[in-house]
Write a structure and sequence with these properties.
One of its GO terms (molecular function) is ATP binding. This is histidine kinase. Keywords: ATP-binding, Kinase, Membrane, Nucleotide-binding, Phosphoprotein, Transferase, Transmembrane, Transmembrane helix, Two-component regulatory system. It comes from Paracoccus sulfuroxidans. With 506 residues, the chain is α+β, with helices and mostly antiparallel strands. The chain is built from eleven helices and 17 strands. A hairpin with a 6-residue loop joins strand 16 and strand 17. The relative contact order is 0.08.
Length: 506
Amino acid sequence: MQRNSFPLYTPTKLALLGAGGLVLLLTIMGIAQHRALTAELAQETMVLHRLASQRADQHDAHLTALSAIATASDDPEQKLFQEVAETITRFFPRITAIALVPLQPDRIAVGAALTPGLAAQIAETAKASDGTITLLPDPDRAGHYIMIKRSPNSDAARYGLILSIDAARLLDDAGAFWTQPGTGLSLSLPDGTPLFQHGKTGDLTQSKTLGSASQPLILTTSRTVTLFDIFPPLRSALILLAAALAALGILAFVRQRRQARHALEQARLSALDSRLAHAARVNAMGEMASGLAHELTQPLTAILAQAQAGRRLLTRDDRERLSSTLDDTVTQARRASVILERFRNWSRPQATPAQPFDLRDALRNVAALLDPQARAQNVALTFELPPAPVMVRANPVEMEQVAFNLLRNALEALVDTPEGQVRTRLQSSGDQVVLTIRDNGPGVAPDLRPQLFTPFTTSRADGTGLGLALSQRLVERAGGEIVLEDSTLGASFRITLPLAQSGSAP
């Protein structure tokens, strides 16, 4: 079943829709900006990661060159080694110390000065090395790490070769992005030992291992995201202004379209109202004829009596009385003519012939006509219509008149009923259509039920008593029936009509 309704967009609803649209727009803006900030952090981290990895790879080359110089020289003082080491530290400031530690106890370390404990640790690490470079935090220099390599890189190693590297300078010239407030950088050894920390850990984080096989340091970047980052004031204001202008434009367009549709609907309803009013006059004529027959019976009876009297007077040759009788006959004939002329004018134009049509359309037309009255009375006017067409063969205007009469009677019965409800239900049952109209009003008085469909029967002081009689006549003309159902609350009318045969000609 479909439940037809007539939506009304009040200022409150429009305000709620606008607020919902604003919240949705802000949510989309926030998500998009958050993704942009995350993507920017990832991009900057990738650039910094590539730079730090390239610099770390240079350390491997330095160790290889220094190891070759140390093993190739027979100079106990390793002067060439020291010259090369000085050149490296001069051109690469992040390398703060280079030293060559002999593995024999009677030899002296060459290069940067080392504490005895560190020198002993380097020698032991080089002896235990399997050929890979060992990374350790530099105990003599905060924020530094040392690379230890045996030289030559074989079991016949004679030296332990080290580079001490400033982790902070490994990230020098990282870019202007990392100088912004809220950004953070950190570098740590593979085992998690921290070497360098800049800024605080933020909401967004990226963690990557350097691409150097010998120095897989862990680079961690972060960014703190504030409300002003998610919603930049100037850009957000411009976006909201553009959205507001677009919404106003759409609202103006929708309002114009609604006004145009409303004008068309009003014109259609006006035409429909006129058609129903005319149909009411046409259909009421048949029923009113029986109630007004005495108006014609009296002049016709008088004409008959006067004609008979005139014939007798004519045989008596009583011309004076015959003239008076004929005058009375003419008067009564004119009276009957006036009555007939009144009915003839009232019934013009003729009604539309019966044809197959969708009964749902007739109900929608009547609903549109009575909806303003229902709203004014605060009555819930509900229609339950099937999703598929309900075809009947009848006069569409007559069926609209039947529904109009029943629904208007229901609304008038609910004038003094709070929370009034009128429910109209249309359904198909076999080869028949059942239309039920039910209200929660005071119902029909028991003494009126027997003659409810008799002309001129009404419980309202201003009623004509023709609506239900006309409705019964029109329904029966279409091959159906209308009955008052037993109901404990309000009045319930059931109309049964035959379904139109498929393929029938209109």
